[in-house]
Amino acid sequence: MCIRDSFTRDNKIPVVALNITRGFQKIISENGLEGLSKEERESLPEIDTTDFYHRRYLERIMKGHGDTDMSEAFERFYLVQCVWEDIMADSISRYLSSPEGKDKKLLVFIGGGHIIYHFGVPKRVFRRNHLPYRTIATYELRDLKPEDEHPLFAKDIPLQPADYVRVIKLPKKEKKVMLGVVITDVRDEKEEKEDKVVIESVLKDSPAGKAELQAGDIILSMDDESVSGVYDVIHHVSKKKAGDTCLIEISREGTKIFIEVTFFELKGHGNK
Asked: 191 and 140: one domain?
């Protein structure tokens, strides 16, 4: 259970589900509203597809994803987005109008794309109940070139991005290291024990290659911590940085061997 769920449970705070199912989104994306059953169409709230700047904002996003067929593909995408946001807005409005929600404040956690510039969910809720609201957007501080457009202030959308913007500075990312092996889980059918982690191949000039680990080696432990699955290896390596060492116990052709691996950054390779 996540911290949010335990907090609301322990403090007896009601939680309102807003999202629609992926299946529902898929039907509309592929077949439009006509793909829904009569009962499903009748259950939909009023859908607004007339916001000029909302449409412009989503066009910018879709172009950024490299779609070439902007006409038909965008119309499907835009319809799904509007249906999605109006259903969420309707759920919010109905709760605030209900005996359970009347005169209460509702804190909505939702993706930034659904509140940016106030269109999306906020305006759709306001259109229904005319209640005051405030939006808080989060912006990750980043370096921008002079020619770059600011992510929050689009030149062709003359609107304020939010009532409040929480600016956060991302921590400096440490360069991760990798062992340099392809590994797989293999079940020991004879002994019916846990899976064994077998090295399928070793990347030349990697930490594993320099330490002379070989294809076929079975990883038994790392720094005296037993290994019973691929995830154990991934998790252990994720805690290492350049210059760290790891004592790996392996089984090679039935013989147990201890090999010390020194980690270093591998240029030109992903962090796996």
From this structure: no
Residue 175 lies inside a defined structural domain of this protein: no
Largest CA-CA distance found in the chain, in angstroms, rounded: 75
The per-residue pLDDT for range 183-218, each reduced to its tens digit, is 888 765 555 455 688 999 999 889 999 999 999 999
* pTM, two decimal places: 0.59
What are the contacts of 143-149 at 24+ separation with CB within 8 A? none
* Rounded distance between C-alpha atoms, residue 207 and residue 236, angstroms: 14
Judged by DSSP in three states, 84 sits in: helix
How many Cβ atoms are within 10 Å of 58's Cβ, its own excluded?
19
Nearest to 179 by CA among 224, 232, 225, 228: 232
Distance CA 233, CA 225 (A): 10
- Do 54 and 32 fall into the same domain? yes
Give the range of the structural domain holding residue 135, as residue numbers without chain letter.
3-169
Computed from CA positions of residues 219, 223, 224, 228, in that sequence, does the dihedral angle turn out positive or negative? negative
For residue 86, which of 136, 24, 153 has the smallest C-alpha distance? 24
SS (H, E, C) 111-169: CHHHCHHHCCHHHHHHHHHCCCCCCEEEEEECCCCCCCCCCCCCCCCCCCCCCEEEEEE
